[in-house]
Amino acid sequence: MSFEPKILGIACNWCTYTGADLAGTTRLKYPQNLRVVRVMCSSRINPSFIFRAFQLGADGVLVGGCHPGDCHYNTGNLYARRRLATTKKILEFAGFEPGRLRVEWISASEGNKFAEVVAEFTAQIRNLGPQAKLKIQE
Amino acid sequence: MLKKTAIEKISQLAAVLMEKGTLLAPVKEVSGHNFAEINDPQKVDLSFYNTIMSPKGAFFPHKEDFVKYKIGKPLSEAEPAVLNLKPAFLFGVRPCDVKSFEIMDIHFDAAGIIDPYWRFRREATTIFGYAYDLNQPVDSADFYNTLGIYAADPEGSDIFMVKKDKELLLKAITKKGENLLSELAVLKDGSAADEKYFTEYVNKGKEYKTRFMTLDQEAIAKKLEDIFDNTDFWTKMSAACLSCGICTFVCPTCYCFDICDDTLFGKGTRRRVWDACMFTDFTLEASGHNPRTQVYQRLRQKISHKYSYHIRKYGVISCVGCGRCTRYCPVNIDIYSIVEAALKA
Amino acid sequence: MTEFKKIEENLKTEATRLLKEGLVTVVLAYGKGFDENHPMPYAAKTIADVENIVFNEYCNYNMARYLVRYPQGTKIAIAVKAADSRAVIQLIQEEKVKRENLVILGIPVQGMKNPKTGEIIDSKTTCGMYNPVLYDLLLGEEVHGAKSASPYDVLAEYEKMDKEARWEFWKKEFDKCIRCYACRKACPMCYCDPCFIDQSKPKWADKAPQSPGNMMYHLTRFHHLAGRCIDCGECSRACPVDIPLYLFHKKVAKECEEMFNQAAGMSIEDKPVLVDFRVEDSDKILE
Ligand code: SF4
Ligand code: SF4
Ligand code: SF4
Ligand code: SF4
Ligand code: FES
Q1: CB burial class (10 A; 0-12, 13-18, 19+) of residue B257?
Q2: Comparing C-alpha atoms, which of C198, C163, C210 is closest to residue A137?
């Protein structure tokens, strides 16, 4: 069977989630490998969500937030940027593929960008193959 | 019956035991020795003082799966874990640790509770006790003499082993030990001189001195009851304690556990996992109330359980003086010193 | 360097004075253990207690660990070596203690030993500094001229490693973990109540000492210590199975320093890097 990546998207309510909506309403096509969870702000994302997602079988995690400066709460994504950068470094030093975690700033009007990023990231994860390192083996 | 083998050739004995069943013996790890199931007879290593983890894990593993289940499916579809019922050989247990099994039996195989996992393993296992090397210095943490245990006590073992220069003497202590020993063709018969050496060694074990104090069970049990409310005393004793779980996990007579249902995507395992009174959440109740929020309360529980409640309930101290809790405590809290101080408090 | 015995004397003198004058209610220092090689963390509360204070090469404990155990507002004197002083600074940054409630007794020292292995503790397993960063009183002469390697030198070998090899390395190490949690309990920066690993809703990891739970515990803990770990090495010295946690903490500290231009516990004016940001932080760090 060919490999269909499972990708978790975590999108902030005000920008990326709305952007995803826009992609939908403008009928843009993007791979169906993404399952999106909405959070109020990218700064809501506890790094453990990401570790846990990989443990529960995600092949990739895509985090979406407002562009720096545009966060609905002014500075949430500026904290998130530092935090998620650290998450990546930790995954990398553990020997995990840091490429399985991607952070993108996508505004409410960037339906196109959303579709492009999902397509690109899905292709990248497809290349990396199934994620087996953190996934809990049954 | 007394047999012997060259210590060099211990792997041959190991290989034979592996054919007969499961062999658990000390192996060298980065930080010290531990008992492990042997897959490669060369790995058995008797050049240890004592293992980091006590051998209790052989009968009461840190994690024990009971049953695998599926949510929403009938009970009949649950799969109970299959016990390994092969004969087992627990090889190289120090006399203080051998003694701990007897204390643990109270909790898992008496007092009205029979834990089938513990009992099956106990019955299937032949214990090869191993005297401390009397030429090696005693570790300053040890105090098994205080508990009436000596470095070369054969009691409790099925087969007891002592080192004689480059040889290992193996003497059958129980019928079970004798039967096994007679089947082990790799061993040579011991001579009369070996018999004499063995007996002398056992006696000399009494002179191999660990820390010692005269301990009257009734007196310490009562004393700890009396000073239960002496918060000053317990705060002082626990000022350094980190409230980690090392002392309880390495201890041969700590037996607390937690039953966990670990479920993922509708499938789960019910298992037993070690727990410890030194953990903050050990006494956390579902209501959110926690009767032991302070470190001193937890240390008091640990000491009092071993040296007071256990005496009151079962008539013995729940400690064999192996010294592990003291040796591995990251801040050198010493149960012996606390008992000593309690008697004076 | 001032001798250990002399430092011990100074420690006793200052402890007596501070307690006598009522300037503090407790002196956090090192005390006699069951034998000379096994001193203990110690809290002297009366002048009579001072007698038990010791200082020798095995007093590696980071006494900052105990600060949070006393109610806010308690006047505390604390003995600190270099890394320990950084922990105190970090705790001040995190508002766990107030500067004005502390009398910091600085101990410049070189040649502390790991009591388990007898090895000298240096920049391989700690920050490798000799002189406290912050103190009110110095209990010995500052150490000068002693060359100290970068605390990050030891990482080179692991950074070079191939990704798969590094994964295998860490997996093997974490598989050894018995989940006694001594690492978090020894760590001066791990003071949460409850710690995430003790939470049951959500439950982040199974209780059993096996791969997935161990991995979750350690990765998350490394993350929680990011930009806060002051590289005292206590976690690794506490670990009964010798997992080299310090390597991972060092790596995260190094990355944080490179990304955010700030090392943990160096100034009470700083803010911990992960509860801070700069508008000019670059998206490059996310690549
Ligand atoms: S006595 Fe030592 S090993 Fe036991 S909980 Fe306290 S610090 Fe940990
Ligand atoms: S993580 Fe380890 S080295 Fe860092 S501050 Fe905590 S105990 Fe010290
Ligand atoms: S591991 Fe994290 S949650 Fe637990 S005590 Fe340390 S910092 Fe707090
Ligand atoms: S101290 Fe070591 S064994 Fe204990 S929880 Fe930490 S890493 Fe695991
Ligand atoms: S609201 Fe979108 S990142 Fe904060």
Answers
A1: middle
A2: C210
Q: Please give the residue of chain B at the shortest CA–CA distance from C190.
A: B242
Model confidence band, residue A1 (pLDDT cutoffs 50, 70, 90): low
Selecting from C38, C42, C185 the residue whose C-beta is nearest the C-beta of B242 gives C185
Last residue of a domain, one of C138, C169, C194: C138
pLDDT of residue B113: 82
- Cα gap A96→A58, rounded to integer Å: 13
CB B271 within 8 A of CB B69: no
C217 CA closest ligand 3 atom index = 1
Can you give the residue range of the structural domain that contains B300? 217-344
Whose alpha carbon is nearest atom 6 of ligand 4? C183
In this prediction, residues C173-182 reach a mean pLDDT of 97
- Quick check: is B138 in a domain? yes
Asked whether residue B96 falls in the same domain as residue B194, the answer is yes
For ligand 3, atom 8, name the residue with the nearest CA.
C192
Predicted pLDDT at B110: 85
Q: How many domains does chain C have?
A: 2
| CA atoms of A131 and A137, how far apart (whole Å) | 11
CA of A118 to the centre of ligand 5 (A): 19
3-state SS of chain A: helix, strand, coil percent to 5?
Answer: 45, 15, 40
Are residue B98 and residue B172 in the same domain, yes or no? Answer: yes
Domain enclosing residue A18, as ranges? 7-128
Q: What is the pLDDT of residue B84?
A: 82
Same domain, B173 and B232: no
Question: pLDDT for C189-240, tens place per residue?
Answer: 999 999 999 998 899 999 999 999 999 999 999 999 999 999 999 999 999 9
Q: Is residue A49 less than 8 Å (CB to CB) from chain C?
A: no
Residue of A nearest to C279 (CA): A78
* Beta carbons of A86 and C256 less than 8 Å apart: yes
- The answer to whether the CB of A18 is under 6 A from ligand 5 is no
| Residue numbers in chain B where pLDDT is lower than 70 | 111
Answer with the residue of higher pLDDT: C158 or B110: C158
